[in-house]
Design brief:
With 433 residues, the chain is α+β, with helices and mostly antiparallel strands. The chain is built from twelve helices and 21 strands. The strands form five sheets. The protein has an eight-stranded antiparallel β-sheet, with helices on both faces. It has a four-stranded parallel β-sheet with strand order 4-3-2-5. The chain has a four-stranded antiparallel β-sheet with strand order 6-9-7-8, with helices on both faces. Helix 1 (31-39) links the parallel strand 2 and strand 3 (44-48). It is globular, with a radius of gyration of 21 Å. Mean pLDDT is 92; it is low at 1-13.
Length: 433
């Protein structure tokens, strides 16, 4: 396996610099794509895939975009295509997970590099995703989906092998994911999923149940140009189990690309990308290293929602947003310089999702405590996720973690020492009413 320090992309100019990039659903850290394409001379146009922004996600920043369009359904698609065609865009990119299907469709209609629509559903629907892997002979979970809790319980009963995992067909951030050890837990979890909506504000009309994959979970972040993929990072997920059998994220730890099981994970994910037709742009795969080998949890055709460009630049020498711009603007150069290669860390790194037991409405944020955390030697940056007037609750999933810390240092022991200090301060960040 070849490694690369992955130098930052140069300004790319085989195409006129006034041609825009189209970003679909520019939620969360998609502003990094705006900056990356702007550095190469291309402004951004935004397309929203719903009539209104999705309430559970950090909304796109209007000031980032030269123009904004709304394409909430098929009736608006042709008009959106016509307007974008008039702008002659250089690329279409999904800003975050909900925008993947529309980005696929727009790129296909505009004749731009993309992953096509044939497998779009398999890149969003977790049941179809795993079935596509099964058809390709790739190791994956056993599974079943249904629109009633009773049917899901029936599958688990017939299988008689616990635990099993119950979750929505299409969500993210460990939203409504339950590890169930008996029929009663399966029934309760299935009812909770079917009674709710995903984090993308989509009604859960079906529920997915899968065989439990024992082992450690990793994420593999890649960027591709015409099927030539560069693995930008592999992170190990450290998780804790909370009441109700739910696992919550604790730390994402950057792994040595030469140490096991990273080479096996990389080889496996490249097969997954081929099976799901992810040939262009970013991907974020979550994989369990089971005793039998890697097995996919899910993969998104977009970059990691926790990706902070300057942190990645600091630790890895480049970042996925910059790599996406290069892959789409200079695909031949990207394939030559990055295809088939993997990252080389400059520092030990981790992302800490700080939990809380606090329950109440935030009155204020104590900036002096935030400053004390930020001043720790290995703390690169602190993301304060709540604000005055917002409700804060005990952590049960990634979305309810009140602080995210990006940490880098000489080794993981140094990071763990500073994390222990953070744990003595974290619940003092927020003052509650």
């Amino acid at each position: 396996m070849t490694t690369s320090t992955a130098p930052a992309p140069r300004a790319a100019h085989p195409v006129p610099s006034d041609r825009p990039v189209v970003i679909v659903d520019g939620y969360s850290n998609a502003s990094a794509l705006v900056s990356a394409f702007a550095a190469a001379g291309h402004p951004a146009v935004h397309v929203l895939s719903t009539a209104e922004p999705r309430p559970a996600m950090i909304p796109p920043r209007a000031e980032d975009y030269r123009e904004s369009l709304v394409c909430p359904d098929a009736s608006a698609f042709e008009a959106t295509v016509a307007r974008l065609a008039a702008l002659a865009p250089v690329a279409v990119v999904a800003g975050q997970e909900p925008g993947v299907p529309l980005a696929d469709a727009l790129a296909e209609r505009l004749g731009l590099p993309g992953n096509g629509t044939a497998l779009s559903a398999a890149r969003r629907d977790k049941f179809r995703m795993i079935e596509a892997l099964r058809a390709a002979g790739i190791r994956c979970a056993e599974q079943f989906k249904a629109d009633t809790a009773e049917a899901v319980v029936g599958w688990a009963r017939a299988r008689a092998d616990y635990p099993v995992v119950v979750k929505p067909l299409s969500s993210a951030s460990s939203d409504n994911v339950y590890i169930c050890h008996d029929e009663a837990e399966v029934e309760s979890a299935a009812h909770r999923v079917l009674a709710g909506t995903s984090m993308f504000a989509e009604r859960n009309t079906e529920v997915l149940v899968q065989s439990f994959l024992p082992g450690t979970e990793y994420c593999v972040d890649s960027v591709s140009a015409d099927g030539h993929s560069f693995v930008a990072a592999v992170w190990e997920y450290e998780k804790n189990v909370v009441d109700g059998g739910r696992k919550i994220y604790d730390r994402d730890v950057l792994r040595d690309p030469d140490a096991e099981p990273v080479p096996a994970l990389v080889a496996y994910v490249r097969r997954v990308l081929d099976a799901l037709g992810i040939r262009h742009g970013a991907s974020h795969a979550e994989v369990i290293m089971t005793p039998q080998g890697p097995a996919l949890v899910e993969v998104g055709a977009r970059f990691n929602g926790a990706m902070q460009p300057d942190f990645y630049d600091h630790v890895l020498g480049t970042n996925p947003a910059a790599l996406v711009a290069r892959a789409l603007l200079e695909p031949e150069d990207f394939a030559r310089r990055f295809g088939g290669r993997v990252y080389r860390p400059r520092l030990a790194a981790a992302v800490y999702e700080s939990p809380t037991a606090l329950d109440g409405v935030v009155d204020s944020v104590d900036e002096s405590v935030v400053d004390r955390i930020a001043a720790l030697p290995t703390v690169h940056s602190v993301v304060v996720r709540s604000a005055p007037g917002r409700r804060i609750r005990p952590t049960v999933d990634l979305l309810s973690s009140p602080l995210r810390l990006f940490m880098a240092g000489a080794d993981q022991e140094e990071l763990r020492r500073d994390r222990e200090v953070v744990d003595t301060l974290k619940d003092r960040v927020y003052r509650l009413r």
